[in-house]
Amino acid sequence: MDKFVINGPVKLQGSVEISGAKNAVLPIMTACLAYPGIYTLNNVPVLRDTTTMVKLLKTIGADVEINNSQLVIDTRTCDNPEAPYELVKTMRASFYVLGPLLSRFKYSKVSLPGGCAWGPRPVDYHIKAFKEMGAKVTLRGGYILAEGNLSGAVVEFEKSSVGATGNVLMACINLNEEVIIKNAAMEPEIVDLCDFIEKMGVKIRGKGTSELKVIGVEKNNNEIIIEHEIIPDRIEAGTFLIAAAITKSKLDVCNVIPEHLSIVIEKLKKVGCDIIENDKTITLIPSDNIKPVNVIADIYPGFPTDLQAQWIVLMSISNGKSTVEDTIYIDRFSHIPELNRLGASISLNDNIAYIEGVSSLYGAEVMSTDIRASASMILGAIAAQGVTSLSRIYHIDRGYENIEKKLNAIGADIKRVND
Ligand code: EPZ
After folding, report:
1. Is 194 a catalytic site residue?
2. Which of 33, 47, 103, 327 minimizes the number of CB atoms within 10 Å of its CB?
3. Phi, psi (deg, nearest 5) at residue 274
């Protein structure tokens, strides 16, 4: 199994190019299943998760051509509306096929996703919504079976959910009746999904707000041809901005939509960094003195939970005390014991981390537990004195494209070694 050997501390410099967004491309790939057609997706990140999704689309009968960051997905031959446990257990986003398959085949059999590194992540909102849209939904042998004709409905989520909003949106694609989604997710990745399915003829009012009014199109089975550019990955961009701040380095982060990172930019300015926003580039000018800044991870446009771990490691070398609270995943803190192995001073009470800044981190052997936790450990290691060995890096490959190549190109010293 691969691991990273990381030497620190380093100074970064120059510019880094951000890839397409994992959490936008995954649902958009599944949306292609809803209607027979040829879909060309550009700016697709090359990740373990996109590879897993390609495998899943192929088991459903699609033909997928991969040309670097372009995917050509042909769903005219799809005939097997099922998602097997083997694939769903490796990637929860596989559950997104339920909506589009139900919309097209009036039937879908999808494995129930299990828990993840930090606890249960139920899909009850998805199931409740499909029932409210008229589907018969049953659980059999670890699989969700959803069947029947869908009809217009008002769906309201108890809490805003990215996945449930996406799944319901895709179930509407072939439904020529209005569905109103209340307390919908407003994340940029959901807006990108909306932009994509609008190209399939779906009418959406309220894009980017918490109430979506959606009317799909009763199709005549004429094939469609669509091309779409995936938005840049704001979480990857945020990770590199924090990499610059923690190593006190000046860095240009390119191919981004600065507006998607407003809250992160605001917080980095409070830390003491200067930020220059251009059209598609954010330049960070570091502060030698990292101020403690509290963060509460929340739904968009709040601070993203997917940058919570990276913020904690930055705060671990601030010159004071800070707190980081996560309101989305109250138990998403498996990175804390590992960061403390690097010499951080972090304690946890319920869903709030209490961080006491230390003057420096020190290299050690640490272990990845999930995608973003491993990113936080890489950030800690490039700022730490000495050598860090980070194992289980298959987690990071799920969500970051060539992270060590990108970091080494701007001055880091990371080697991928086979353990
Ligand atoms: C998406 O997960 C992202 N994954 C996650 O990113 C991200 O952390 C999360 O949204 C929040 O922004 C992808 O897009 C593939 P939710 P998702 O449904 O859709 C509860 C990463 O690192 N909930 O918005 O699964 C849930 O437990 C990943 O890239 C229910 O209770 O998240 C959580 O507390 C990690 N029942 C909250 O809602 C449901 O049916 C938000 O979850 C659905 C959700």
Report:
1. no
2. 327
3. -100, 140
307 phi/psi in degrees, rounded to 5: -115, 5
Contact 292, 315 (CB under 8 A): yes
The answer to whether the CB of 331 is under 6 A from ligand 1 is: no
Measured from the CA of 330, which atom of ligand 1 is nearest?
A: 34
CA 119/CA 111 separation, integer angstroms: 18
Q: Which burial class, exposed, middle or buried, applies to 79 when counting CB atoms under 10 A from its CB (0-12, 13-18, 19+)?
A: exposed
Report pTM: 0.98
| Beta strand segments in 122-245, E | 136-140, 143-147, 153-156, 178-182, 203-205, 211-215, 224-229
Handedness of CA 301, 305, 307, 313 (dihedral sign): positive
Q: Is 289 helix (H, G, I), strand (E, B) or coil?
A: coil
Our answer on whether the CB atom of 37 is closer than 6 Å to any ligand 1 atom is no
**Residues 146-164 pLDDT 10s:** 999 999 999 999 999 999 9
pLDDT digit string, tens, across residues 110-139: 999 876 767 778 999 999 999 999 999 999
Selection from 55, 62, 398, 26 nearest residue 192 by Cα: 26
- Site of tokens 């059209």: 279
How far, in Å, CA of 221 to CA of 275, rounded?
50
Question: SS3 of 202, please?
Answer: coil
